[in-house]
Amino acid sequence: MPRTATGESSLDRAVRVLEAFTADRPELGVTEVARRAGLHVATASRIVGQLARHGLLERAPDRRVRIGVRMWELASRASPTRSLRDAAMPYLEDLHAVVGHHAQLAVLEGDDVLFLERLSARDAVVNFSRIAGRLPLHVSSSGTVLLAFGPPELQERVLARPLQRYTDATTTSPERLRATLEQVRRQGWVLLPGHVHADAAGVAVPVRNGLGEVVAALSVIVPADDRAPSTVPVLLAAARGVTRSLAVGGGA
Q1: Cβ(235)–Cβ(203) under 8 Å?
Q2: What is the spatial distance between Cα 53 and Cα 31, in angstroms, rounded to a whole number?
Q3: For the whole prediction, is pTM greater than 0.70?
Q4: Mapped to the 3 state alphabet, what secondary structure does the chain carry?
Q5: Among residues 29, 112, 114, which one has the least CA distance to residue 75?
Q6: Residue 155: how many CB atoms within 10 A of its CB?
Q7: 189 to each of 13, 146, 176, 207, how far by Cα in Å?
Q8: For residues 221 and 226, what is the distance between their CA atoms, to the nearest angstrom?
Q9: How many CB atoms lie within 10 A of CB 149?
Q10: Would you state the pLDDT for residue 7?
Q11: How far is CA 161 from the centre of its chain?
């Protein structure tokens, strides 16, 4: 595979171009792609052209660039989370029907929480998470659950670095976060009112596979009021249903 004078392969640079696109910035000009990818504009333009010829990127009518349908097709075909999403969807739909706001499925991806699915209602409370979007683990209820049941080395890595603040309620103290993680492991759920947005509360529970391993988190985003705790029993029931489905289907 061709390499630059710095030893970086063409594939490495192509990946950097693809990673320039985020949920917040799904369309970019070539100059911005180059800046975000740390590449010369001419290099970025050439790579964009190559990826576009394969359908992995595409150009909008205004010549801005976005992820192509071919990329979505390949990712959907090969995704290891497909069986998990398929097992969870019936229970996620029931959960959404009960809470009337947002119901979500998320997994651990690196040091972030990655959202695989989100069902919402027209007049639902504000929610910053998106399908295929990420949030820091300590901020969201799903992330907190996944961190609590994650590897000890992940927990120590997160606890050792600065914890980003989203609102006044966001946990930014390592001691407070460590105590929260212990509580989650003990009670099996977490309620975080106002941690991402002052008006919203996240409630999450772990999802286990047939071996009892935590493989995902189910959560709801509801108004931050005294009704939020009432969602815990329906969340726990939904998570048990997903676990049974995974055990039967052999997924995750």
Answers
A1: yes
A2: 19
A3: yes
A4: CCECCCCCEHHHHHHHHHHCCCCCCCEECHHHHHHHHCCCHHHHHHHHHHHHHCCCEEECCCCCEEECHHHHHHHHHHCCCHHHHHHHHHHHHHHHHHHCCEEEEEEEECCEEEEEEEECCCCCCCCCCCCCCEEECCCCHHHHHHHHCCCHHHHHHHHHCCCCCCCCCCCCCHHHHHHHHHHHHHHCCEEEECCCCCCEEEEEEEEECCCCCEEEEEEEEEECCCCHHHHHHHHHHHHHHHHHHHHHHCCC
A5: 114
A6: 17
A7: 41, 11, 16, 11
A8: 13
A9: 18
A10: 61
A11: 20
Backbone angles phi, psi at 203, to 5 degrees: -125, 130
The identity of residue 75, as a single letter, is: A
The sign one gets for the Cα dihedral 78, 84, 90, 96 is negative
| Cβ count near 132 (within 10 Å) | 14
For residue 13, give Cα distances in angstroms to 57, 206, 237, 246.
Answer: 14, 37, 45, 38
Strands, sheet with 134-136, edge to edge from the N-terminal-most edge strand: 134-136, 112-119, 102-109, 214-223, 200-208, 190-193
59 or 75, greater pLDDT: 59
User: pLDDT tens for residues 148-206?
Assistant: 999 999 999 999 999 999 999 999 999 999 999 999 999 999 999 999 999 999 999 99
* Alpha-carbon separation of residue 142 from 99, 136, 137, 139 (angstroms): 16, 10, 8, 9
Question: Based on the number of CB atoms within 10 Å of its own CB, is 213 exposed (0-12), middle (13-18) or buried (19 or more)?
Answer: exposed
Task: Provide the percentage of residues in the chain whose pLDDT is more than 70.
Answer: 95
- Give every CB contact of residue 32 below 8 A, 6+ residues apart in sequence: 20, 25
